[in-house]
Amino acid sequence: MADKNAQAPRATTNRSTVPVSDTFKEYISGNWAVRTEGKPTPRSQSPYAAARRASVSARYPGKRLIIPAGAAKVRSNDTDYAYRAHSAFAHLTGWASDSVPGSVLVLEPNADGHTATLYFRKAAGRDSDEFYANPEIGEFWTGPRPSLAHVAYDLGLLTADLADFTAVLDSVDADTLILRDGDRDLTDQVDGRRLLAADSEALENDADTGLARDLSEMRLVKDEYEIDQMRRAVAATKKGFNDVIADRPAIIAHERGERLVEGTFNRRARAEGNTVGYDTIAASGAHACVLHWTRNDGAVVPGDLILLDAGIELDSLYTADITRTLPINGVFSDTQRLVYEAVREAADAAFAIVKPGIRFREIHAAAMEVIARKTAEWGFLPVTAEESLQPDHQYHRRYMVHGTSHHLGIDVHDCAQARRDLYLDGILEVGMVFTIEPGLYFQPDDLTVPTEFRGTGVRIEDNILVTESGAENLSIDIPRTADDVEAWLA
Ligand code: GLY
Ligand code: MN
Q1: In whole numbers, what is the pLDDT of the chain averaged over residues?
Q2: Banded pLDDT at 202 (limits 50, 70, 90)
Q3: Residue 237 is assigned to a structural domain of this protein
Q4: Probe ligand 1: pick from 262, 437, 460, max atoms within 8 Å of CB?
Q5: Is the pTM of this model over 0.90?
């Protein structure tokens, strides 16, 4: 069942002190004021979410589509990780950081297309013991839940109590598809019911995979609302970077200064948005050569660079993904500047070719042309840049093993289930948003580079919007040339 709370209670009753006497139950159930709930203004995302549902509906005539938000994930025993609804669910409902765990969107086929209904666990009445005795979802424990009517107005969607979802389960047939990674338990139940209705399980799973792919691909081009959210996410992220710069004295003074960088950035993320869009990478000195350094337990030492890869996820769940590499003492050394400006040249070369109609992978190729040329010029490659760029050579990739770009949106690595034809080999369209993030990483023990390069890692990452006339760098206001970075730190 989508609602994990309907499963066996968690084994934590051994320390429950909630009184169970009938006297107490009767006493706590009475003397509560009647609640009046205002009618909310529909959220600005609701017409966009409706258009997205219409687009899915048109693609799946006659099919029942089940798109779960997913249950909260257990961290240990009776404590959960912070809840985050499945991105496809948030995209199609507009319900994001405030969604109720275990909710399910159902598109029920009708003569004209589909009827969309959002099922969620409505608040329990005072006549049940949920409100005071259920630490997972009780109002006294996790706060009140909105009413069905409130959410219906807010999102512009029909709503129903999750208890009534059993009727949907009862009608599951071979024409029912489910977003499988939305909720594994619910998927198992749907699989069981479909097995009774049809004779090929494999066929059903293929159809489900197609649904997941379509929901991922429809996010490749962002609508007006999404582009606005991306701008806001980048603006909030800029403030987080400014906070880190302002906090430099304390960061340098602490033996685990990287943790302070993370904490300072994440403080802004919680204040301005929902949280961070991914674990903050605060990589000082040679840690910058570890692409996803999130342990963040090192010192931040003047004379070194610090690579900060961080993004704020808004309450709508749209996230930025920005990297800046900063000289901790405010000034780049000659070698640091050389590497930094080479990476910037690669980023600029990649950005320069972005326009509707080119292929996504050409962006990476443009960046790699610069990375190969620079590393060849410095004498690091056993061949010329041209030879290194041959597909069967690629010596320069020793210093940058990752790709240059990924789509960005509700997920930091957005649209991850899109087909290669539409992603890496895809053609750029107006409204696409992705990163450009070349880097150069000279590992501390790399014998192919001079000692002064070893332990230096630089990445510059910007968030790019494809426009009619080419491209807009959404993060251009966050200083990115070596001179501008020094001025920013000064
Ligand atoms: N910001 C981390 C990544 O793009 O993988
Ligand atoms: Mn990235």
Answers
A1: 95
A2: low
A3: yes
A4: 437
A5: yes
Residues 6+ apart with CB under 8 A from 42: 153, 154, 155, 156
C-alpha to C-alpha distance for 473 and 275, rounded to whole angstroms? 23
pLDDT the model gives residue 6? 46
206: burial class by Cβ within 10 Å (0-12, 13-18, 19+)? Answer: exposed
Residues 181 and 137 grouped into a single domain: yes
Kindly state whether residues 38 and 82 are assigned to the same domain.
yes
Instruction: Give the single-character DSSP code of 304.
Output: B
Report CA(461)–ligand 1 centroid distance (Å).
9
Ligand 2 center to 463 CA (angstroms): 9
Closest CA to 117 of 156, 159, 146: 159
End-to-end CA distance of the chain: 56
* pLDDT at residue 260, rounded to an integer: 98
The token pair at 465 is: 């919007």
Structure tokens at 21: 């006497």
| Distance between Cα 5 and ligand 1 center (Å) | 34
Residue 483 Cα distances to 32, 244, 488, angstroms: 63, 19, 9
Residue 433 Cα to ligand 2 midpoint, Å, equals 12
Ligand located closest to 283 CA: 1
pLDDT category of residue 125 using cuts at 50, 70 and 90: confident
Nearest to 230 by CA among 404, 52, 433, 45: 433
Say yes or no: 228 and 211 in one domain.
Answer: no
Is residue 382 within 8 Å of residue 376, measured between CB atoms? no
Which CATH number does the domain housing residue 29 bear?
Answer: 3.40.350.10
Contact by Cβ (8 Å): 320, 436: no
**Whole-Å CA distances, 359 to 211, 235, 460, 461:** 25, 28, 22, 20
Q: Give the pocket of ligand 1 (CB within 6 Å).
A: 278, 309, 321, 412
User: Binning pLDDT at 50, 70 and 90, where does residue 96 land?
Assistant: very high
Can you list the alpha helix ranges (DSSP code H) found in 163-246?
165-170, 184-197, 201-217, 224-246
Q: Is 80 exceeded by the pLDDT of residue 306? A: yes
Q: In testing the pocket of ligand 1, which one of 241, 309, 325 has its CB within 8 Å of the most ligand atoms?
A: 309
> 3-state class of 384 per DSSP?
coil
Any domain includes 1:
no
Residue 450 tokens read as: 């001079």
Contact 404, 367 (CB under 8 A): yes
